[in-house]
Amino acid sequence: MEQVNQIILSKAGSNVDLIPEIAKHLISSGGKRLRPMLTLACADMFGYRGDGHVTLAASVEFMHTATLLHDDVVDESDMRRGKLAARKVWGNQASVLVGDYLLGQAFKMMVDVGSLEALRILSEASAIIAEGEVLQLGAAKNITTTEADYLRVIEAKTAALFAAAAEVGPVIAGEGAEMKAAARSYGMELGLAFQLVDDALDYGGSSADLGKDIGDDFREGKITLPIVFAVARGSDEDRVFWRRCLESDGIEDGDLEHAIELLRKYDAISDTVQRAKDYGDGALKALDKLPQGAHADALAEAVAFCISRVS
Amino acid sequence: MEQVNQIILSKAGSNVDLIPEIAKHLISSGGKRLRPMLTLACADMFGYRGDGHVTLAASVEFMHTATLLHDDVVDESDMRRGKLAARKVWGNQASVLVGDYLLGQAFKMMVDVGSLEALRILSEASAIIAEGEVLQLGAAKNITTTEADYLRVIEAKTAALFAAAAEVGPVIAGEGAEMKAAARSYGMELGLAFQLVDDALDYGGSSADLGKDIGDDFREGKITLPIVFAVARGSDEDRVFWRRCLESDGIEDGDLEHAIELLRKYDAISDTVQRAKDYGDGALKALDKLPQGAHADALAEAVAFCISRVS
């Protein structure tokens, strides 16, 4: 992981000062580096001897960072990981362009590794992530979104990169179709679990005491799984409330509290957490097919860590 | 070219409706398709037999289209090629994300072609373009920008893609270093000429009668070569004027007319056109080293077309 961090910092460099400044703001702000860890573990578990996995891991983190920069612009977010979002410090323009730069660097790094198959998997993920974001843009402010609709969004915008990050491990280790499919499946299920936990946390998760970082999705009119459950299970009166809050920017004081009350009443948060656990179990099942040992243990821990954030 | 258009339209497709809608808005709005033409001609001139050049040409146009979508967001432009800019129809959010999608598709298509060298050249260009845009962001609203500063910007933001589009032709045709360097040099010089002609046209070019599509750069505070010349050659009083207009958003009625008057007085537009012609000549010289015939003739015509827009 230390090597990954070094590559990340060196490849975020540029003669254009603003680029490393913004990139480092994000990169050093304590992301969990979960995605690059998947790439490293999924290559190392096959005894991969080389440094291609380190470069691929760094390029995965760059893809993720580029997505964050663009997401903040798209969502008009003010904060990211407890710090001011880059767009609030340097502006939307710089955030869009530095995101583009990091994406370009990510592809250059993948080319350096020289595996066309890894390139195919990661470039495919790149297109799918953007597709998922566009899909979410369409689903935003629409309370008729179904669970299937929503899963399609998060499979694309979040889980596809986890899946790709894991799959390129066996790819550069020269493994066959079965190991690649198992790694991909592990990543996909973990990614879904991860996103659902995030969604639950945005409404305070299982905790009764609400921290200060909650309600962002609600304020942005994002329809996440807790909302899908609560809308489907609620009364007509509830739906009037949800429509006012989420479809028409009409959020008033006390609405978030009422929303959380409704989410609790219909078990919408706890059922979302349950879904996350189910996907976590799915990830562990996929992991059973992969070589056992210290790396598999680390990947199992990643699942436990992900779920533990909410319970 | 017909094949390129077909690939472009099919690969701009997506199950997410908004994506083809926006992509087609731009793609069908009559861009000149100059960049993909370079790729085709620079492969065909070596007797390349395959269809990789068509796919690469389409991916070059996707990279360009993605850049346009993001540029309009960054420049807050209202119009693009005489139509409403995509961001004015579908919003900044969709423009950012559909740009990302097209970039991802571009890389997927390059991977399909399977040439790591072409991938390296185009991914390098992708990072450099973004770097050039960030550089321009820093140079905007700064009238002390020099000619060298400005050339660095346009070499990155415009000419790098022309150079890459041309270079990948001999690359997939299996040519050696000399032909690749000549094609790259042709593309680079043409790209510089192209951008300088654009810059001159934004102030009406050589024509005395000013059309309606002028002054965009001026209103956006963009420091282009005509401005660099006029600032360097002008009086202290002129610099006060340029500073007020370009550095502090203080444009008033009649300022554009006065700006054009100053640009003419100091031969700033005609000298920019002269520079463009010089780069055009450079492109023709590079072309002399490439195989002569119908394809070289078409590439020479591209230079003449580019210059003819302004004179």
UniProtKB/TrEMBL annotation, chains A, B:
CDD domains: Trans_IPPS_HT. Transmembrane segments: none annotated. The keyword Magnesium applies. Its cofactor is Mg(2+). Keywords: Magnesium, Metal-binding, Transferase. It holds the Pfam family polyprenyl_synt. Belongs to the FPP/GGPP synthase family. This is Polyprenyl synthetase family protein.
